[in-house]
UniProtKB/TrEMBL annotation:
GO terms for biological process: DNA double-strand break attachment to nuclear envelope; double-strand break repair. Transmembrane segments: none annotated. InterPro entries: BRCT_dom, BRCT_dom_sf, CellCycle_DNARepair_Reg. It comes from Aspergillus coremiiformis. Residues 593-602 have a biased composition (Acidic residues). One of its GO terms (cellular component) is nucleus. Residues 5-103, 103-194, 232-309, 334-417, 638-702 form the BRCT domain. Residues 474-543, 578-612 are annotated as: Disordered. This is BRCT domain-containing protein.
Length: 853
């Protein structure tokens, strides 16, 4: 029996092992053998080979997040784990929680196993909650697995055991965890290590040592001046198409040198934005930048390209702030700031100086009374004393990094930005702030059509000089699905690209530059706040991206239709990036034939727009297998449906009809039920497409008696209940959810919110508070509706059980009753649209023990 269980440990798991400098090919083969011996499937990915289809895998094993599909794996909710996860699974004889083994540096305690000695109970609870939230583990006993013992002295029982048995464990003061959690970064433990911690014995004026920072090596500037020498074996560009934008402002000699390096490394230089795998540009603007970003290509600047050439190791351009193209405009609110630096040395200082310039502020070598901010690594310096006397803002570098990353001025009153651990030089954690693709998308390549096609007056003025210098150059906007139409033609534009093997004169490039040095890198924006993930499947994300690039596709098709095509045609009045300076003068010099052609085309576009039938059905679709992995068919089918009067939507709030193959427990299906749509079989879509006509959906009503019996509800009754509930079924309910719940917190929060309830994340240290945002009369009415029970969605997993006592205490302190329930309680309520008692779903320690037996 034991042998059979060992074989089935990784049953139904297909695991991709990603090689890197810390995970060699030999080690990967050893891990693959272990996986296969335990009944799983494995595949080894050795960069820079093409990454296999992501949706095939259940887990990715990697020691780093620096591989091209990390963000896509996060979006698809595929766990990325370190190799230690496999060993933990083998030791436990069951699949371990992947979150504790994530290589994501934002979970900076993920390699820490912590136990507490003789410290106050309140500090103990706070440390346990913080460790778990940042990826670490807590052990109630001192074992060989423990890495940190939190204690006040070395005289406690646990400390004596650790010293007597010579365990490899650091005995640290609670202050270390406190400072790490306040900063949101892991700092060096040495000043806090017992028996003789530096923070207790060093004088206030004692110098603070600085530690070499490797996070910003090769990433301290957005504008490198020298071409690096590539490693002997440079294969990072193997099979890659690289596009070099003209806004880089590089001469023909350097361009040829870079092209030669890329080609020697197995890559190729292209000038087609739709075919490129990597776009290298200076600014976050232009059609090529937007298209490459929307197509999910890698977009970086010259500094990032040089980093790849130097180390021949893949890193994401989003990992470091100055590896991504900058913005021409300052961070809102940074205009007029004069910022000085103190206590940062070497490359860390150079990095922060360039970051200040990229943010749009002025960096001063000396501190004067007209300065506005002092960014310092610690509080012990003459500059700090003078700044406080003059009333300047004294902050650490996290304020600057996160303002740049979020492209928003952060408040200096935030305690994270004014915290300086006593014996720590914060230069050791410079450069750890990461960019967030969602922030870049919302501000630099938004998905809405209006933001792409209608530039406001301020945008027009900002880009005026750039567009005039660009003249009549165009950019390739050929979408993937149109490639076969132009196989024999060179659909390449010159507006934002440098053609392979050719170069423009350097004097032409200078026209695109801004004279002021402080503005050469005066744009940057990223976000280090981890974005929340939804439970959308990867195919839906891919479909969304296809719709996002629709404006660029339309622009390409328009360019191709007119005389001269994409290559030889000039810009037209209605072009997206065209700025009209003098309309009357422009009309007088334009050929009459082109003007007539514009009018005819506009008339034709209006006629086609008017010919579309009105939308009669807003259709939400889930579980339609014919579109899985076939984006071209999905896009074509959706266009055909729209011509029939059926608009496919993604938001449950906007749907009038829901199509599914059966009753499903997907977030789309469950959320849509609350809006009482007509629920039809997925065959309705196939029938409409086949006959190319709008059929009566009432003839395709969904019937699934087996699922209704299994889940204990009637679809007809549920739809009727939803009309009566009007999204208020859970009004007054306060529901918490553990962070690592299967299915994801965001999925369950959306269900609760859709049904009028209030859902919050519970990490073991959240205080229960009643919202008081309304008037006194409204608040009184809300109190009458609030229930006496507070619910926690959980499972019997050990890491979930550890949160139960804290949840009970928190709720009981408010005079209410805690109820810990399975997620089935919420799902059954949402699907039946009727309240259900929690008794049959409640969890307890006794029940958990029986389930383990």
């Amino acid at each position: 029996m034991v042998a059979h269980e060992e074989l089935q440990l990784f049953d139904q798991c297909k695991i991709c092992i990603i090689c890197s400098k810390d995970l060699s090919l030999d080690t990967a083969h050893q891990l693959a053998t272990t996986i296969e011996e335990q009944g799983g499937e494995s595949l080894i990915y050795d960069p820079p080979a093409t990454f296999p289809p992501l949706h095939e895998f259940t887990h990715l094993v990697s020691t780093t997040i620096n591989f091209p599909t990390f963000d896509a794996a996060n979006d698809a909710l595929i766990p990325v784990v370190r190799p230690q996860w496999l060993h933990a699974c083998l030791n436990k004889r069951k699949l371990a929680n992947p979150r504790q083994y994530s290589p994501d540096p934002r979970l900076f305690l993920n390699d820490a196993v912590v136990t507490c000695g003789d410290i106050p109970e309140g500090d103990k609870d706070a440390i346990i909650g913080g460790v778990l939230a940042k990826g670490g583990l807590y052990s109630s006993k001192i074992t060989y697995m423990v890495t940190h013992l939190v204690d006040l002295t070395t005289e406690s029982d646990k400390a004596r055991i650790a010293l007597s048995k010579k365990l490899n464990v650091r005995i640290v003061l609670p202050h270390w965890f406190d400072d790490c959690l306040k900063l949101g970064r892991r700092i060096d433990e040495r000043p806090y290590t017992l028996p003789n911690p530096e923070i207790l014995r060093a004088g206030p004026d004692a110098p603070i040592r600085s530690i070499e920072n490797r996070d910003i090596v090769g990433a301290s500037t957005a504008e490198p001046t020298t071409l690096p020498t590539p490693r002997p074996k440079l294969d990072i560009f193997e099979g890659k198409q690289v596009m070099l934008s003209t806004d880089l402002g590089i001469g023909s000699h350097l361009l040829d040198s870079i092209t030669e390096i890329i080609e020697e490394g197995g890559g190729a230089v292209t000038s087609d934005a739709s075919k490129t795998d990597i776009l290298i540009c200076r600014y976050r603007e232009g059609l090529a930048y937007r298209m490459a970003s929307k197509l999910n290509r890698e977009v970086g600047n010259l500094s990032w390209l040089y980093h790849l050439i130097t180390y021949s190791t893949w890193t994401s351009p989003l990992q470091r702030l100055l590896h991504y193209p900058v913005s021409r405009t300052p961070i809102p609110g940074f205009e007029g700031f004069k910022i000085s630096l103190s206590n940062y040395v070497g490359e860390a200082r150079s990095y922060l100086e360039n970051l200040v310039a990229a943010s749009g502020a002025e960096c001063t070598k000396t501190l004067k009374q007209d300065n506005t901010h002092l960014v310092t690594a610690h509080g012990n310096s003459e500059k700090c004393s003078a700044a406080k006397e003059w009333g300047l803002h004294v902050v650490n570098h996290l304020w600057l990094e996160e303002s740049y990353a979020k492209w928003k001025l952060q408040p200096v009153s935030d305690p994270r930005y004014t915290h300086f651990p006593r014996r720590t030089n914060l230069g050791e954690v410079v450069g750890q702030t990461r960019l967030d693709k969602s922030v870049l998308q919302s501000l630099f390549y938004p998905l809405e059509h209006k933001s792409e096609t209608r530039a406001g007056p301020s945008t027009a003025m900002q880009n005026k000089d750039h567009n005039v210098a660009a003249g009549k150059e165009t950019v390739s906007v050929q979408p993937p699905q149109l490639k076969e139409l132009e196989e024999d033609g060179n659909i390449a534009g010159a507006g934002n690209t440098t053609p392979a093997g050719k170069s423009r004169k350097f004097s032409d490039h200078r026209k695109l530059q801004t004279p002021a040095r402080s503005r050469l890198t005066s744009e940057g924006k990223e976000n280090d706040t981890p974005s929340s993930t939804s439970s959308r499947k990867s195919k839906e994300a891919a479909t969304a991206r296809l719709h996002e690039i629709a404006p660029d596709i339309a622009l390409y098709e328009k360019e191709k239709r007119r005389v001269g095509g994409v290559i030889y045609g000039g810009r037209r009045r209605t072009d997206e990036d065209r700025i009209t300076i003098n309309t009357k003068k422009r009309r007088s010099v334009e050929p009459q034939a082109e003007t007539d052609d514009d009018d005819d085309e506009a008339t034709e576009a209006k006629r086609q727009k008017k010919s579309k039938p009105p939308v009669t059905i807003h259709l939400l679709i889930t579980g339609y297998q014919k579109w899985v992995g076939n984006l071209k068919k999905e896009d074509a089918d959706k266009r055909q449906l729209r011509e029939l009067g059926i608009l496919v939507v993604q938001d449950a709030r906007k749907c009038s009809h829901l199509a599914a193959p059966s009753i499903l427990r997907t977030p789309k299906f469950v959320n849509a039920l609350a809006y009482s749509p007509m629920i039809i079989n997925i065959d309705y879509i196939t029938a409409c497409l086949k006959k190319n006509e709008l059929l009566d959906p009432s003839g395709f009503l969904l019937e699934d008696k087996a699922a209704e019996k299994r889940f204990g509800f009637s679809l007809e009754v549920s739809t009727s209940n939803a009309k009566k509930n009007m999204n208020n079924l859970l009004q007054g309910y306060q529901i918490y959810c553990v962070e690592t719940i299967r299915g994801g917190f965001e999925a369950f929060k959306s269900i609760v919110d859709t049904n009028g309830g209030n859902c919050s994340l519970f990490r073991g240290r959240v205080a229960y508070q009643t919202k008081r945002e309304e008037s006194d009369e409204d608040s009184a009415e809300e109190d009458n509706q609030n229930r006496k029970e507070v619910y926690l969605l959980s499972s019997v997993a050990p890491d979930h059980q550890r949160l139960w006592p804290r949840f009970r205490q928190m709720v009981q302190d408010t005079g209410k009753t805690p109820r810990i329930v399975r997620v089935d309680w919420l799902l059954d309520i949402a699907m039946s649209q009727a309240l259900r008692a929690a008794d049959g779903y409640e969890l307890s320690e006794d029940m958990a023990d029986k389930m383990e037996e």
